[in-house]
Amino acid sequence: MDEVAPRADALLIDGERILAVGRLADVEAAVQRGARRVDLEGQTVIPGFNDCHCHVLGIGLGLSQIDVSADAVRTIGDIQRAVGARAAAVPEAQWIVGRGYDQNMLAERRHPTRAELDAAAPHHPVMLRHTSGHVVAGNSRALEAAGIGMRTADPAGGEIERGPDGEPTGLLKEAAMELLLAAIPPPTRQQGSTAIVRATEVMASYGITSATDAATGEGESAEPELAMYRGALSSGAQRVRILLLPQIRYVAAAGSAEVHVTEEFAVGDKPEWLGIEGTKIFSDGAMSTRTAAMRVPYAGHADNIGMLLWDEETLVDMMRRAHGAGWQIVTHALGDRAVETVLDCYQQAMDGRPAGERRHRMEHCMVFDEALGRRMRELEIVPVMQPDIFRLGDGYVAALGLDRACDVIPLRLLERLGVRYALSSDAPVVPCDPLANIHSAVERKTPSGVTLGRENGIDVMTAIRRYTVGGAYAMRTDGMKGMIRPGMLADFTVLSRDPASTPPEEWPSLRVTMTVVGGEVRYKP
Ligand SMILES: [Zn+2]
Predict the structure, then answer these.
(1) Centre of ligand 1 from the C-alpha of residue 138, in Å
(2) Residue 96 — very low, low, confident or very high, per pLDDT cuts 50/70/90?
(3) For position 133, what pLDDT does the model report?
(4) Ligand 1: distance of its center to the CA of 282 in Å?
(5) Which is deepest, 6, 158, 309, 493, by most CB within 10 Å?
(6) Rounded-to-integer distance, Cα 101 and Cα 67, Å
(7) Is the dihedral of CA 169, 170, 173, 177 positive or negative?
(8) Distance 427 CA to ligand 1 centre (A)
(9) What is d(CA 77, CA 337) in angstroms, rounded to the nearest whole number?
């Protein structure tokens, strides 16, 4: 990934850093004293993947929740069996939490109802998180525990879905999810730390060496989650470097005049392993739940153009304060109406100047046209994209119709316009598997086998570049990560064969055979 010297056959590391890279004879000559020699027998070393948008705690907690994703269930009956089996195994009144269902992938093509979840677990509160993380489905016990009834008003920026009789159906969208989430006992600090460590084990197994938690903190204070991350770090078992993005409410809350600085967020004294980077703002919802803010209505829903979570004035005000206090701002903007609004707001908050080294980001940018792409470049806003179509692509077709779905995630357009961007997973929305996501960035095939605008895809080496150099750039750590170059951190991944010469049809046989972070092996099967 180093354009000066793109290929080499040996590297020398000393402690946490890379000392020399190049031809074997030259690297051998650079050895000062005794060195341990590792022969990779013709395998390929690439810079470690940098997943600059995922949810680390969420990945870890998800490992102990029931899997109701498309990997595990095909029908609502399957979901009921999974919930019922868990209910039989845990005491009554204990919450049953499931993760990753996708109505687009179920035979019934709809969300499970409250009555169906009641039938599976009449005595336990049940909550299933949608794969997007923007909708949850609860049963009657869960709604009861959260105090949600016929007379409960929709919170600002959220919706309690109701049937024709006015009764909640169990589906809670966007801000309304918080009502239910608040009723679930949060993980203890110890449970959270353990979950984070387990998440880093999973990430290291996929060849990731750095990850960014893209929305740190839930509820009143970020401190409980920060304590979990500190706990993971001090356990000594954390395998992957982590940066955190505390939510804007802890930095420059809407409606207040306050602003908090980075130093107020305590994360310990190993910034290369755990640090605070930017602050996270959500501006709209998700595609699969039809809550992303679109210029054109969703297919078959002429009255639905999704939702913006803030008015422009509030967004600008939050951004202006965070920008003034030196923060990198990271804003979720998925639909083109959100992308446009967020660009307008950035422009105002920065008084018309480009972001420069601040590298304010825009997350997802699933739908946008060339004019908006040009504005990203002019304002130097860094789009952070998720190339998965392999898992969620059919949902994009359902939401937008085939024609518009072919133009989602226009990576080729970003390349052509010269916009600097990064690729990432948004796990646990989809697994944090860079090789699978890179394959998807190239092939753009949905689970049912439809190719969504292959011309919007990119080639393999470009995708790897955006998942390594791109991630480091988005996280403002490109001086020490993203390339194998002397002076940089010894963070790299060994692949079973050279990805550049692996034909697309053989890509699934590519394996991560070792992950090294800071000069130490953190994963080896
Ligand atoms: Zn996310």
Answers:
(1) 22
(2) very high
(3) 82
(4) 9
(5) 493
(6) 8
(7) positive
(8) 7
(9) 37
Distance 213 CA to ligand 1 centre (A): 8
What are the pLDDT digits (tens) for 264-295?
998 989 999 999 999 999 999 999 889 999 99
* Rounded distance from Cα 424 to ligand 1 centre (Å): 10
Ligand 1 centroid from CA 135, angstroms: 13
CA of 142 to the centre of ligand 1 (A): 25
pTM for this predicted structure: 0.88
Mean pLDDT value across residues 327-350:
98
CA of 48 to the centre of ligand 1 (A): 21
Ligand 1 centroid – CA 54 distance (Å):
6
Task: Answer whether 145's CB lies under 8 Å from 183's CB.
Answer: yes
pLDDT at 33 over 90: no
Cα 55 to averaged position of ligand 1 atoms, centre (Å): 6
Confidence of residue 160 (pLDDT cuts 50, 70, 90): very high
Residue 400: pLDDT above 90?
yes
Q: How far is the CA of 353 from the centre of ligand 1 (A)?
A: 27
**501 CA to middle of ligand 1, Å?**
32
What is the 425 CA–ligand 1 centroid distance (Å)?
8
What gap in Å lies between CA 421 and CA 419, rounded to an integer? 6
Q: Spell 307-318 as b/e; 16+ CB within 10 A means b.
A: bbbbeeeebbbb
Residue 370 pLDDT class (50, 70, 90 cuts): very high
Task: Count helices and strands (H / E) in the chain.
Answer: 16, 21
Report CA-CA distances (Å) from 475 to 274, 275, 319, 445, 511.
13, 11, 18, 29, 26
Torsion of CA 109, 438, 332, 515, to 10 degrees: 120
- Compute the distance from residue 141 Cα to the ligand 1 centre, in Å: 28
Average pLDDT, the chain: 95
Q: Where are the beta strands (DSSP E) in 437-490?
A: none
Ligand 1: distance of its center to the CA of 389 in Å?
Answer: 16
Model confidence at 330: pLDDT above 90: yes
Residues 6+ apart with CB under 8 A from 398: 104, 109, 288, 299
CA of 313 to the centre of ligand 1 (A): 24
> If pLDDT is split at 50, 70 and 90, which confidence band does 132 have?
confident
The alpha carbons of the chain give a radius of gyration, in whole angstroms, of: 23
Find the 429 Cα to ligand 1 centroid distance in Å.
8
- Give me the half-sphere count of Cα atoms (radius 13 Å) on the Cβ side of residue 79: 36
Question: Two tokens at 368?
Answer: 């946008």
For residue 19, report the distance from its CA to the centre of ligand 1, in Å. Answer: 35
* Residue the block writes with tokens 């018309």: 352
Residue with tokens 């359902």: 398
